[in-house]
DNA sequence: ATAATGACTCCCC
DNA sequence: GGGGGAGCCATTA
Protein backbone atom coordinates (compact mmCIF):
# COMPACT_ATOMS: atom_id res chain seq x y z
CA UNK A 1 0.00 0.00 0.00
CA UNK A 2 1.26 3.40 -0.88
CA UNK A 3 1.26 6.20 1.65
CA UNK A 4 -0.96 8.77 0.02
CA UNK A 5 -3.72 6.51 -1.43
CA UNK A 6 -4.17 5.02 1.99
CA UNK A 7 -5.84 8.23 3.06
CA UNK A 8 -8.09 7.91 0.04
CA UNK A 9 -9.33 4.56 1.31
CA UNK A 10 -9.97 5.99 4.76
CA UNK A 11 -11.98 8.78 3.22
CA UNK A 12 -14.01 6.31 1.22
CA UNK A 13 -14.77 4.21 4.27
CA UNK A 14 -15.57 7.26 6.34
CA UNK A 15 -17.95 8.53 3.71
CA UNK A 16 -19.63 5.20 3.07
CA UNK A 17 -20.14 4.74 6.78
CA UNK A 18 -21.92 8.09 6.83
CA UNK A 19 -24.52 6.91 4.33
CA UNK A 20 -27.87 6.94 6.17
CA UNK A 21 -30.12 3.88 6.08
CA UNK A 22 -32.42 3.74 3.09
CA UNK A 23 -30.07 5.87 1.04
CA UNK A 24 -27.52 5.04 -1.63
CA UNK A 25 -24.74 6.75 -3.50
CA UNK A 26 -22.49 6.21 -6.48
CA UNK A 27 -18.76 5.60 -6.76
CA UNK A 28 -18.36 8.78 -8.74
CA UNK A 29 -20.13 10.82 -6.06
CA UNK A 30 -17.80 9.44 -3.41
CA UNK A 31 -14.74 9.94 -5.56
CA UNK A 32 -15.86 13.47 -6.27
CA UNK A 33 -16.42 14.18 -2.58
CA UNK A 34 -12.88 12.98 -2.01
CA UNK A 35 -11.60 15.45 -4.55
CA UNK A 36 -10.83 12.85 -7.22
CA UNK A 37 -13.88 12.40 -9.47
CA UNK A 38 -11.77 10.30 -11.82
CA UNK A 39 -10.92 7.80 -9.13
CA UNK A 40 -14.37 6.24 -9.17
CA UNK A 41 -12.73 2.99 -10.12
CA UNK A 42 -10.41 3.20 -7.18
CA UNK A 43 -13.43 3.72 -4.94
CA UNK A 44 -14.76 0.39 -6.10
CA UNK A 45 -11.39 -1.09 -5.29
CA UNK A 46 -11.61 0.37 -1.80
CA UNK A 47 -15.03 -1.23 -1.45
CA UNK A 48 -13.47 -4.55 -2.25
CA UNK A 49 -11.05 -4.02 0.62
CA UNK A 50 -13.90 -2.80 2.81
CA UNK A 51 -15.23 -6.32 2.74
CA UNK A 52 -12.94 -7.18 5.62
CA UNK A 53 -14.54 -4.40 7.63
CA UNK A 54 -17.89 -4.75 9.34
CA UNK A 55 -18.97 -1.13 9.49
CA UNK A 56 -18.78 -0.29 5.82
CA UNK A 57 -22.19 -0.69 4.10
CA UNK A 58 -20.81 -1.28 0.63
CA UNK A 59 -24.25 -2.45 -0.45
CA UNK A 60 -25.33 1.18 -0.36
CA UNK A 61 -22.75 2.04 -2.97
CA UNK A 62 -23.71 1.46 -6.57
CA UNK A 63 -22.67 2.82 -9.92
CA UNK A 64 -23.97 6.14 -11.22
CA UNK A 65 -26.84 4.31 -12.91
CA UNK A 66 -28.13 2.89 -9.64
CA UNK A 67 -27.28 -0.62 -10.73
CA UNK A 68 -25.86 -3.16 -8.30
CA UNK A 69 -22.78 -3.79 -10.36
CA UNK A 70 -20.83 -5.09 -7.39
CA UNK A 71 -23.49 -7.43 -6.09
CA UNK A 72 -21.44 -10.25 -7.48
CA UNK A 73 -18.78 -9.52 -4.89
CA UNK A 74 -21.19 -10.05 -2.05
CA UNK A 75 -21.91 -13.28 -0.24
CA UNK A 76 -24.91 -14.40 -2.23
CA UNK A 77 -26.35 -13.48 -5.57
CA UNK A 78 -29.00 -11.12 -4.24
CA UNK A 79 -27.49 -10.35 -0.86
CA UNK A 80 -26.91 -6.75 -1.85
CA UNK A 81 -30.41 -6.39 -3.27
CA UNK A 82 -31.99 -7.93 -0.19
CA UNK A 83 -30.04 -5.58 2.04
CA UNK A 84 -31.20 -2.56 0.11
CA UNK A 85 -34.78 -3.76 0.05
CA UNK A 86 -34.57 -4.38 3.79
CA UNK A 87 -33.61 -0.73 4.20
CA UNK A 88 -36.73 0.46 2.43
CA UNK A 89 -35.34 0.69 -1.09
CA UNK A 90 -36.85 -0.89 -4.17
CA UNK A 91 -34.50 -2.98 -6.26
CA UNK A 92 -35.63 -4.73 -9.41
CA UNK A 93 -33.29 -6.71 -11.62
CA UNK A 94 -30.24 -5.25 -9.85
CA UNK A 95 -31.60 -1.80 -10.61
CA UNK A 96 -32.62 0.61 -7.85
CA UNK A 97 -36.00 2.18 -8.52
CA UNK A 98 -36.17 5.95 -8.11
CA UNK A 99 -32.43 5.93 -7.62
CA UNK A 100 -32.29 9.71 -8.00
CA UNK A 101 -34.76 10.03 -5.12
CA UNK A 102 -32.87 7.66 -2.83
CA UNK A 103 -29.42 8.91 -3.71
CA UNK A 104 -27.37 10.41 -0.91
CA UNK A 105 -25.00 13.19 -1.73
CA UNK A 106 -21.90 12.92 0.50
CA UNK A 107 -20.30 16.00 1.94
CA UNK A 108 -16.91 17.06 0.71
CA UNK A 109 -14.41 15.83 3.29
CA UNK A 110 -11.56 16.95 1.09
CA UNK A 111 -12.18 20.61 1.74
C1' DA B 1 9.65 -0.65 -13.55
C1' DT B 2 6.22 -2.71 -16.91
C1' DA B 3 1.94 -5.14 -17.76
C1' DA B 4 -2.60 -6.75 -16.55
C1' DT B 5 -7.01 -6.39 -13.82
C1' DG B 6 -11.09 -4.12 -11.79
C1' DA B 7 -17.44 -3.08 -7.28
C1' DC B 8 -16.33 3.15 -12.77
C1' DT B 9 -17.38 6.93 -16.07
C1' DC B 10 -17.51 9.41 -20.36
C1' DC B 11 -17.66 9.88 -25.48
C1' DC B 12 -18.94 8.14 -29.92
C1' DC B 13 -21.49 5.20 -33.19
C1' DG C 1 -31.92 3.44 -26.51
C1' DG C 2 -28.20 0.11 -26.72
C1' DG C 3 -23.38 -1.34 -27.54
C1' DG C 4 -18.36 -0.60 -27.93
C1' DG C 5 -13.96 1.72 -26.99
C1' DA C 6 -10.79 4.74 -24.36
C1' DG C 7 -9.33 7.08 -20.04
C1' DC C 8 -8.16 7.32 -15.01
C1' DC C 9 -6.57 5.63 -10.45
C1' DA C 10 -4.77 2.14 -7.30
C1' DT C 11 -3.37 -2.71 -6.50
C1' DT C 12 -1.11 -6.92 -7.62
C1' DA C 13 2.00 -10.10 -10.15
TrEMBL record:
An annotated Gene Ontology molecular function: methyltransferase activity
Residue ranges occupied by any Methylated-DNA-[protein]-cysteine S-methyltransferase DNA binding domain in the UniProt entry: 7-88
One Pfam family named in its UniProt record: DNA_binding_1
Gene Ontology biological process: DNA repair; methylation
Keywords: DNA damage, Methyltransferase, Transferase
SUPFAM superfamilies xrefs: Methylated DNA-protein cysteine methyltransferase, C-terminal domain
UniProt cross-references to InterPro entries, sorted A to Z: ATL_DNA_repair (IPR052520), MethylDNA_cys_MeTrfase_DNA-bd (IPR014048), MethylDNA_cys_MeTrfase_DNAb (IPR036217), WH-like_DNA-bd_sf (IPR036388)
Top-level lineage group: Bacteria
NCBIfam families listed in its UniProt record: ogt
Protein name: Methylated-DNA--protein-cysteine methyltransferase
Gene that encodes it: ogt2
Amino acid sequence: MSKLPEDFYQKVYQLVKQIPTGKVTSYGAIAKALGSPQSARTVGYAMNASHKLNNVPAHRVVNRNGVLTGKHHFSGTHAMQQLLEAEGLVVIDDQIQDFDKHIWQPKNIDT
